[in-house]
Amino acid sequence: MLTDAVRKASDESTPLVAARNAVLRVCNAIPSSEMIELDRLMRTSPSVQARKQVFYVQQEDEIYTALRERWPEPERSMALRTVAMLAVGAMRIAGDIFTQENGERPLAELLENIFRSVASEIR
Amino acid sequence: MLTDAVRKASDESTPLVAARNAVLRVCNAIPSSEMIELDRLMRTSPSVQARKQVFYVQQEDEIYTALRERWPEPERSMALRTVAMLAVGAMRIAGDIFTQENGERPLAELLENIFRSVASEIR
């Protein structure tokens, strides 16, 4: 799902926008109530928590691979990898805040705020 | 070590610069040869790999806490958390490339390149 969204990004898209849209699409596909419950369940086990982190690294690799197919210039590779890290990190933080807030704000809204706040801190 | 560097950041510093300097200081403190060996050893065990990811999340929390002490405005909290994620993610990617390249480029140089590439992708 993540990589499909990157592959289907429009011609005018940038790597960051493509990665952002990919994680937004995934977040919109998960029902909120299920997410909170799943997250609570996962937090009860340290080994499941550890595997969750490994899962995030896998997601990052998948997005990175899809971005490289789309923007294959070798000199861009490090930037693409960083964009993939940023997108998956944003997804993880959005999920954490979502659970903490008990679903008060929609996941997609949190994710958009995170991307905006990165941009404002870097500029 | 990470949080000390954030706390000691100059008054003109931004959260991103403080977090960047913190991870740069840590990278400069680890001898290259030891890092490659340690990383190789760690890669032989999936459970150690998983714990490494948990370690990164802990580092992120520590930097985030230090950044919040320094910039305590609540409306800035999400941005600070994102900056901490970015800094630790950059450290992780720099470490991966460093090992892949067998220490060809110094870790600090890789880390600086990563921070530059994020800035160029976001602008």
Task: Reconstruct the topology from this structure.
The structure is a homodimer of 123-residue chains.
Chain A: H1 2-7, H2 15-29, H3 32-43, H4 46-70, H5 77-100, H6 107-122
Helix pairs in contact in A: 2-5, 2-6, 4-5, 5-6
Domain MftR C-terminal (chains A, B): 15-121
Protein name (chains A, B): MftR C-terminal domain-containing protein
Organism (chains A, B): Rhizobium tropici
Structure description:
Chains A, B: This is MftR C-terminal domain-containing protein. The structure is a homodimer of 123-residue chains. With 123 residues, chain A is mainly alpha-helical. Chain A has a single domain, classed as Tetracycline Repressor, domain 2 (Orthogonal Bundle), CATH 1.10.357. In chain A, helix 2 packs antiparallel against helix 6. Chain A is built from six helices and no strands. The longest helix of chain A is centred in the middle third of the chain and has 25 residues. The model of chain A has no long low-confidence stretch (mean pLDDT 86). The first copy, chain A, starts with a helix and ends with a helix. At the A-B interface, helix 4, helix 5 and helix 6 of A face helix 4, helix 5 and helix 6 of B.
